[in-house]
Each structure stands twice: as structure tokens, then as C-alpha cells.
């Protein structure tokens, strides 16, 4: 049985991935690693929880040693909008933190899953049907750390044989834990506001097309890639994965089909707009489909139906 550590386990993806991994591999075999934010009762009561700051290599090593960890899902990271406001912090967490995790993985022979992002692309990347291998010259600190992270993971595999794997996540939409400081956060907030006030003020402009994915597919991507036959992986790190592409008008129309009174206006955030303009409109994820059978279950309509059902109960 695998022994897993999830860093960033209190975050948007980590909180749900930890529970999905516990269901699959057993509660005691999945250690939730978090830092500042208080974990939910569900996370605390269902299995081990440890304070793990990935910028402290000794803290990472101590937990890996204590629980005899063999697989690390390294989700602790600073997202794009916060990274633009705090570039030094973003470098420290996203690069030094990842480097610490890779060093510990090398020493203790762990496999490592690291999410990259659509943020690893930039204005000179072909933005439609963005290929798996293409120009990556991002102009944000988040993007700089994501490209460097992809390369670092490739390096640790080639040079030291660490079993590193990863995907380039698009915007992730979920209803359990709110995202913290990303450019794609609007696509989560819009559902909460649709239920609460039937009204939303959007901070990205109409026409800002971005790749997106519903959380169950994001969890499936991480787990399936880590279980994939290594012989079949050509790219290994940073697979493009996507489930849908839309702009604010299209997601609003999808919500309006369920809540006809829903209205949306705009108050565009110039920083987020500038970031979104450098990211793909839609990615080509054929390498992930061919190499490890990636296929999303949710399109926009299925996601909207599920989000509104879950959130109307929750709120
Ligand atoms: C962000 O917007 O920063 C993240 C991402 C797409 O990586 N959601």
C-alpha cells in the first residue's frame, strides 16, 4: 500500500485530493500536510495531519521519515494574482519549496506529483489549441516559477531517477474550498454569487477565454497520472490537460439556463486581465489522452448543474 504525503492539503485542490486519496488508499496511509490555515474537521478527523512548511526542508524530511512516505503530491504553491503582488514569496514557495520536496524525494526514494499550470505559457505561445511542446516565455512571476518547476522536475527524473510526474492544470472549479488568489477564481465565485444574490460582478472581461476543469476531473487527472504505466510516459511532467474553454459570457449563459434571473456586470481587474491575456484560450491535451488515457467526465453544462445543486444545499 502506498504511503502518501499531500503538501498544501488545506488548499482548494489539496483538501479534496487528500480525501480522494484516503478513500482509495486508506485513511491512515495519507498524511495531510498544511501550514497556516486551519484544516476542516473532515480532514483532521479522517487521518493524520502534520504542519509542513515546504520552504523548510527539515520539516518535509521529518514527516517523510516519520510516516515512511513513498509518494508526495506537492500542492503547496502561491497562485498567479498573489504571485504578482508578492513575487519574492512566490519564488520562495514555488521554487525553493519544490526544490526541497525534490531533494527529500531523492533521498527517501519518493515519487512526486507536481502541478504546473496554463500559467506556464506566455504571450508568444500559440494561444489556440496550444501544443504540448511549444514556446514558453511567461511574463508573470507565477509563470516563471511554473516553467522552472517543470524543468526542475524533468531534471530530477533524468539526473537522479526520481519518479516525477505532473500536469498543467487549467482553472479548477470546485465547491468545497475556495481558491486563494488565482486569475481563474472568478469561475468559482460566479456560482457562489449566483446562488447567494443571483448577481455577479466579474473581474475578467468578456472574451477572456481560458481552459477550465471541474474538481472531480482534476482529482482523477492527478491520481490516474500517478498510477499510469511509466513505460508509456513520454512527457512525464507538465501534461496539458483540459476539460472545457469558456469566457465569462459563456459561463454566465450556462448559469442563466438554470437560474433565468441571474445577471452579471463587469469591474475588470487590470492585473488579472493582463495575466489572462497571456494564457492559452484552449490547450491541446492529446499527449495526456494518448500516453495515460486522460479523458474528462464533465463539460460546462454538467459542471454547472452539479455546482448549483451542491451549492444550493451548502449555502
Ligand atoms: C491561477 O489562476 O493562478 C490558477 C492557475 C490557472 O494556475 N488557478
Sum up the structure in keywords.
315 residues; alpha/beta; UDP-galactose 4-epimerase, domain 1; 2 domains; 14 strands; binds 2-amino-3-ketobutyric acid
Walk me through what this model shows.
By secondary structure, the chain is of the alpha/beta class. The chain folds into two domains: 4-170 and 214-240, 3-Layer(aba) Sandwich (Rossmann fold); 171-212 and 244-281 and 297-314, UDP-galactose 4-epimerase, domain 1 (Alpha-Beta Complex). The chain has helices spanning 12-25, 41-46, 57-67, 80-85, 87-108, 141-160, 186-196, 215-227, 248-258, 270-277, 286-292, 300-314, and strands at residues 4-7, 30-34, 49-51, 71-74, 111-113, 116-117, 164-165, 167-169, 171-173, 199-202, 210-214, 239-240, 244-246, 263-266. It has a six-stranded parallel beta sheet, sandwiched between helices. A three-stranded parallel beta sheet has the order 6-8-12. Strands 9-11-13 form a three-stranded mixed beta sheet. β1 (4-7), α1 and β2 (30-34) form a beta-alpha-beta unit. α7 (186-196) packs parallel to α9 (248-258) and α7 (186-196) packs across α12 (300-314). The longest helix is centred in the first third of the chain and has 22 residues, at 87-108. The radius of gyration is 19 Å and the shape is globular. The N and C termini lie far apart (38 Å). The protein binds 2-amino-3-ketobutyric acid (AKB). The site of 2-amino-3-ketobutyric acid (AKB) has 12 residues, from loops.
Amino acid at each position: 500500500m502506498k504511503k502518501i504525503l499531500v503538501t498544501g492539503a488545506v488548499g482548494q485542490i489539496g483538501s479534496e485530493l487528500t480525501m480522494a486519496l484516503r478513500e482509495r488508499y486508506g485513511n491512515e496511509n495519507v498524511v495531510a500536510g498544511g501550514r497556516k490555515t486551519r484544516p476542516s474537521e473532515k480532514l483532521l478527523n479522517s487521518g493524520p495531519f502534520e504542519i509542513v512548511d515546504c520552504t523548510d526542508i527539515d520539516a518535509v524530511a521529518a514527516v517523510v521519515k516519520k510516516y515512511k512516505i513513498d509518494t508526495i503530491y506537492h500542492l503547496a504553491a502561491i497562485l498567479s494574482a498573489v504571485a504578482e503582488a508578492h513575487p519574492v514569496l512566490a519564488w520562495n514557495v514555488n521554487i525553493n519549496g519544490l526544490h526541497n520536496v525534490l531533494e527529500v524525494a531523492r533521498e527517501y526514494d519518493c515519487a512526486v506529483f507536481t502541478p504546473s499550470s496554463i500559467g506556464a505559457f506566455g504571450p508568444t505561445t500559440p494561444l489556440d489549441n496550444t501544443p504540448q511542446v511549444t514556446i514558453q516565455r511567461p511574463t508573470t512571476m507565477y509563470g516563471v516559477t511554473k516553467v522552472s518547476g517543470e524543468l526542475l522536475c524533468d531534471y530530477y527524473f533524468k539526473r537522479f531517477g526520481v519518479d516525477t510526474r505532473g500536469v498543467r492544470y487549467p482553472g479548477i472549479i470546485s465547491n468545497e474550498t475556495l481558491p486563494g488568489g488565482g486569475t481563474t477564481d472568478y469561475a468559482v465565485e460566479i456560482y457562489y454569487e449566483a446562488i447567494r444574490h443571483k448577481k455577479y460582478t466579474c473581474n475578467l472581461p468578456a472574451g477572456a477565454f481560458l481552459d477550465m476543469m471541474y474538481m472531480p476531473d482534476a482529482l482523477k487527472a492527478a491520481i490516474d497520472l500517478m498510477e499510469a504505466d511509466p513505460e508509456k510516459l513520454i512527457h512525464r511532467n507538465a501534461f496539458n490537460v483540459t476539460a472545457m474553454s469558456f469566457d465569462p459570457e459563456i459561463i454566465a449563459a450556462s448559469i442563466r439556463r438554470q437560474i433565468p434571473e441571474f445577471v452579471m456586470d463587469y469591474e475588470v481587474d487590470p492585473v488579472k486581465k493582463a495575466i489572462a491575456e497571456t494564457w492559452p484560450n484552449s490547450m491541446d491535451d492529446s499527449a495526456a489522452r494518448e500516453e495515460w488515457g486522460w479523458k474528462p467526465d464533465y463539460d460546462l453544462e454538467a459542471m454547472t448543474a452539479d455546482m448549483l445543486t451542491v451549492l444550493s444545499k451548502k449555502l
